[in-house]
Each structure stands twice: as C-alpha cells, then as structure tokens.
Amino acid sequence: MVTRRRLLGTGLAAAGVGLTGASFTPLLAVDPAKASPSTAATPDQFAVAMPRMPVLRPTFRTKTTDHYDVTMRPVRKEILPGIQTDLLTYDGNFPGATIKARSGRPVIVRQHNGLDVATSVHLHGASVTQTNDGDPMDTLAPGGDRLYTYPNKQPHASLWYHDHAHHREAESVYRGLHGSYLLSDSIEDQLPLPKGEYDVEIGIRDAHFDAAGQLVYIMDDLERTTLLTNGVPYPYFKVAARKYRLRFANMANQRFLGLQLADGSDIIQIGSDGGLLPRPHTTKSFVLTPGERADVVIDFSRYAVGDTVVLENNVIFNGTAEQVGRVMRFDVVRTAEDPSSVPAVLRTLPPLPTPTNERSINMHMEEGVEHPKAYLDGKVYDGSRVDSSIRFGASEIWSITNTNTRVPHNFHMHLVQFRVIERGGKPPAPGESGLKDTVMVLAGETVKVQATFDTYRGSYPYHCHMLDHSAMGMMATMKIS
Questions:
Q1: 3-state DSSP call for residue 158?
Q2: Residue-wise pLDDT tens for the chain (481 aa)?
Q3: What domains sit in the chain, N to C, each tagged with a CATH number?
Q4: Spatial CB neighbours of 364, under 8 Å, sequence gap ≥ 6
Q5: Tally: H helices and E strands in the chain
Q6: pTM across the whole model
Q7: How far is it, in rounded angstroms, from Cα 196 to Cα 199?
Q8: DSSP output for 22-36
Q9: List of residues 6+ apart from 382 with CB closer than 8 A
C-alpha cells in the first residue's frame, strides 16, 4: 500500500534537494465557492494502455529544411473511459504530436489558429530569433496563420512546445496546447543507448474533471488530482525484459513530481532539459517541476516475464496518495535481445567561461489573499518594459531567490540553456549537472545559474514555469543587445 507518510519521506532526499511535504504548499487562496460542486470519480488505475506519442510527418522536405503544417483546433476526445472531453489541441492530438528534428537542419512550422482565442507558440528550450520565440505578447489571432522557423543550431535536447499567450497560457496549456520536440545529433547517435521502440516519451500532467468529464480550469486549483500520462489516466505500458530509454516531461501547470519505482529499484538518469548529462547518475528517484524533462534508463531485465512494477510519485501536496501517488504501471510481457548499454561518459560540456556580470532575481507571490499577484523583482509582468539589459556575448551568473515562506517556484529562461552552479550554497546534485532551461527554486532558497548570451539579439522572457504563477505576473523581459 502506498502511504502518504512514505511518499513524503522518500525520493526527494535521494534527489539531493532535501525536500519535505511542507515545502510544496502550492497554492494559497483557492476560493472553495469557485471549485466545481461535483467532480468525476478517480478513474480505475492501470486499466488502459499508455499510447505512444504520435510523430508528426513533414508536409514536405527540401535539401536543407523540414516543413510542417499544424492546425490548432478544438476537439472532443475520450480521456476518461466512455466520456468525451472538450480539448484545445494541435491537429486534434492530446498531447500534440512529436516533431523529430535534427541539429543543423532547420524546421519551419506553419501554425494555423483554428481556435477562438489568440495563441503564441513557444518552443521551450530552443535557441531561436525573437520573432520565432513565441513571445507572450506576440500572438496569432483566431483564423490566422504564422510561420515559426527553428534553426536547430543547438545540440540534441528533449524540447517541448506550448501556448504562451499572456493571461491565456495557463488555461490553454492546461486544456491541451502542448507537445514534444525531439532534437537529435551525432553525439547522441553514436552512443549505445536504447533506440527505436525502446526509446519512449512519457509526458505527465494532472487534471480536474467535473462530474460530466469536462476539464475544470480555476486559477490555483487544488483539485487537479487525476494524473494523466501521454493523455490517459494511470495507464499500463507493456515492456520487454531489457533496458528502455524513457524521456519524461512534466507538462503540468503546477504539480511537482518525484518519480520512483515502487520496489525501490535503481533508475539511471542520463539526461535533463538540454540533453545528455556528462555522466550517468544512478538514483532511486528524480524530481521534475513543471516544464522540466529528465531522460532515464530503466533495466527491466531484473524482472521476470509476468512481473509488474508501478511508477510512483513521491511528492504529495494536493490530492491523496491513492489519487496522485501512482502514475503508471510497467508490465513485463516478453523477453528481448538487448545490445544497448549506458556508457560511463555520455558527452563533454565545455568549461564555463569567466562570468562577465552577476545579477540577482527575486521571485515572490502574495500569500494568504484571495486573488494573489506574483512578482519578479517586485514587479508584475509588463510586456512593454525591459527588466534586464544584457550585452550580447556576455556570460552571467544569476542568483535566483524565492522569497516566499511556503510557496515553491521554478525558473525558466527563454533563448538559452544554462548551467546550475549552486543550490542553497552547495554544488548542484548530479541530475542538475547538464544543460538546463528550467530549475526548481523552493521557498526561501537561492539557486545560482550561469548563462551565456551569444546566439541571438533581441527581447526574451524569463519567468516562473508554474504557469498559473506566470499568468499572475511572475514574468519579466531581458533584452540582449
């Protein structure tokens, strides 16, 4: 039996961040009168198969570039068994289909907005020009078309795309506007990691359904207690008794995840937001905050055919352990040859340059009020204001402090991948040793990162990636010139 006490006390310490359940008070002032008076019952667990993420096919290809066409449109789709739920989607897929791209080969996506609200498509983790970044204020009107060009000059990484239209981003992403973008390169290709059908994307998020099976969106909702994996609740996934590469993404608006196997078996983390780690890291669990990704290898050869093992979430801050403590189940159904392995060295990252500047960023959200506002450096987001001016080519250390006493945040920079250099005065844990674009910042904590701004000039956002918080105003603009 999964117990609340056990889930709160495990995994997070192993991840090297020393968290407690009290660290995860997520939301401060939900009005009970706004909550849905009747919610759907928690669906049966491990009753449906986990679908593989669909892969988007190019509309056409030239010698240099892949071209895609995507239509954002509403659909009704079965999520809970036997019930049709209204969603906002890319091409009718929930989550959106994966775009598989190659470093050095540009991708152009024509987005058509078939919705009745404005949108802005942001490729999270990508190095792109300002006009292709999906700025919160640079929106695509209903009925409009827009080309987004992704040069893919950066190394391999598991990226994702989602809506970013300010004041709409939290609800639109929650209702389905999110999907994956996998960028590969020769560094990754040459490694003997699991490939093909044994390389699997797993996107996890939560949801609040009313009694009719419709998604309920309330800012700072504490009732998002149904976990969805690849768009379905609490699935099972059939595996062979061999190694799998599993690419996890936290696509939730606010929920933190601490993922572990129920039997306490080892998990080998090989990557994070910006691709492979320098060296693999063996752990019992790993933490993902909203927007973060982790690439892991799990060896199912330790199990016999017929065995099952549950993937658990050990961060319980809203919902019961029965609701949000179990994510999915792996069912070992066959044997298979396994030529794959995890090398002791995965990649070499260049040494960090000597920093040219340091700056401090303070994150704060009002506590104990009905309609809280959220701030960066004491200011609510204003898209017309430049908050940080950065010299092109600079390499800066940012000290990011969460000044709240109870509420956790995380921090995401557009344009750049950064390196975590210090957490709470200590070196980062092994899982944060690679390239990152989103980092956890707990209440009262300071995290230092270093970023180099040498790719594109222009104005780009940085913000809390708990999207309800950014929609409240916890976002700012940096200008690189």
A1: strand
A2: 233 233 333 334 434 444 433 334 333 333 334 444 467 888 999 999 999 999 999 999 999 999 999 999 999 999 999 999 999 999 999 999 999 999 999 999 999 999 999 999 999 999 999 999 999 999 999 999 999 999 999 999 999 999 999 989 999 999 999 999 999 999 999 999 999 999 999 999 999 999 999 999 999 899 999 999 999 999 999 999 999 999 999 999 999 999 999 999 999 999 999 999 999 999 999 999 999 999 999 999 999 999 999 999 999 988 999 999 999 999 999 999 999 999 999 999 999 999 999 999 999 999 988 889 999 999 999 999 999 999 999 999 999 999 999 999 999 999 999 999 999 999 999 999 999 999 999 999 999 999 999 999 999 999 999 999 999 999 999 999 9
A3: 4-44+191-334 (2.60.40.420), 60-189 (2.60.40.420), 357-480 (2.60.40.420)
A4: 374, 375, 378, 402, 403, 404
A5: 5, 32
A6: 0.94
A7: 6
A8: GGG---S---GGGS-
A9: none
Residue 8, CB-side half-sphere exposure with 13 Å CA sphere: 15
> How far apart are the C-alpha atoms of 245 and 195, rounded to whole Å?
7
129: region left, alpha or beta (phi > 0 left; psi from -120 to 50 alpha): beta
Write out the two tokens for 251: 């696509």
Q: Which residues of 411-448 are buried (b: 16+ CB within 10 A; e: fewer)?
A: bbbbbbbbbbbebeeeebbbbbbbbbbbbbbbbebbbb
List phi, psi (to 5°) of 127. -95, 105
| Pairing of β 96-102 and β 178-184 | parallel
Give the β-pairing of 475-480 and 388-390.
parallel
Q: How many residues does the chain have?
A: 481
Say which residues have a Cβ less than 8 Å from residue 339's Cβ, sequence separation at least 6.
192
Do residues 229 and 312 touch, judged by C-beta distance below 8 A? no
Please name the helix (run of DSSP H) or strand (run of DSSP E) that holds residue 324, with its range, or none. Answer: helix 321-324
Give the tens place of pLDDT for each residue, 456-478.
999 999 999 999 999 999 999 99
For 136, other C-beta atoms within 10 Å of its C-beta total 24
Which of 413, 417, 401, 395 lies closest to 465 in space, CA to CA? 413
Three-state DSSP at 389 gives strand
